Amino acid sequence: MAFYKEREGKIELIFPVSDMDAITGCEIKDYINKIVNEVDVVIINFSRITYINSSGLRELIQILKLLQDKDKKLFLTNLSENIKKIFVNTNIIKIINIYPTDEDVKRSL
Amino acid sequence: MEKIKDYKNFLQLNTKVNISVRSGSYQGVYDSRIEDLRGDGIYISLPTLKGVPFPILPGTEVEVSFIASGGRFSFDTKVEGRVVDGIPMLKLKKPEYIYRSELRKFFRVDCRLKIKIHRLFFEKLNGDIIFKVNSYDALVKDISGGGVRLQTEIELVEDDIIQVDLTDHFPTINEIFGRVVTVFPKVDKKYEYGVEFISIRERDRDLIVKYVFRRQIELKKLT
Prior knowledge:
The complex is a heterodimer. By secondary structure, chain A is an alpha/beta fold. Chain A is 41% helix and 23% strand. Chain A has helices at residues 22-35, 54-68, 81-89, 102-108, and strands spanning 3-8, 11-16, 41-45, 73-77, 97-99. In chain A, helix 1 runs parallel beside helix 2 (54-68). Chain A starts with a strand and ends with a helix. By secondary structure, chain B is mostly beta strands. Chain B has one helix spanning 202-222, and strands spanning 2-4, 16-21, 28-38, 41-45, 48-49, 52-53, 61-68, 71-85, 87-93, 98-101, 109-125, 128-144, 147-152, 161-165, 176-187, 190-199. Chains A and B meet through helix 2 and helix 3 of A and strand 11 and strand 12 of B.
């Protein structure tokens, strides 16, 4: 399993546990595709992610599109400093909502 | 390099190690693993190269290096014998000290590797999200497990992120994100940068570290 999951009402929390690459990204996307009609918000918690590649970034964009098409929201939390730098430099930070913690997201809703 | 006498917290069972043989008929860098630590011996699995075991001869002097929490460690020792205890192993003499270098200060070697670097961007355009990649040629002038010094034609600034593609030299390593940490003065109208790896798979880092060991041996032979 490339990720763990938890449901809190209409919020789905996803905790990837391995590299954020095409395989992990695709597994998460397939899962979200199945549950997209059951939730309003998806939070992907990056606390265990130390490696991401361009395929992982592209999968995140696919996940965002999948959720936006259904008027749902995507948030990323707990990014390491290095991954945050990658997100800033590639402009992902202007496209996906990024918060320090899951609690910060819940407070903002 | 920090000298460590009490190293039992660093050298543990199942630690993956690189075994460097600098002379004799088995010269090279091999993969192995700590199988047992008892008495005055360190017992390692038979060293392998591309999956092929090499039963290095007793009496051979080797350098053992490994990465553990807290840094990169190494020590010199000697193969004392071959042992079969369920699996075939080599017995190494326990060293009096091991040495630690910080992970950030991986040993660098000079090289001249032609590679590609990429800059990635995502852009919102007419409601859609576009992914763009700009690719450039670059020449790696030195390399370590922690980063590269490279020369290229594009102008970058400190903190820029690039993707380092080493596939021409390491077929499996095409996706390392690196951050520009140093901008050197221009040489021959080309820009030169120190790049720190900030997103790299540990198995890819191991491959680079092994290359560095091999290259060290090659360079020593040339001098």
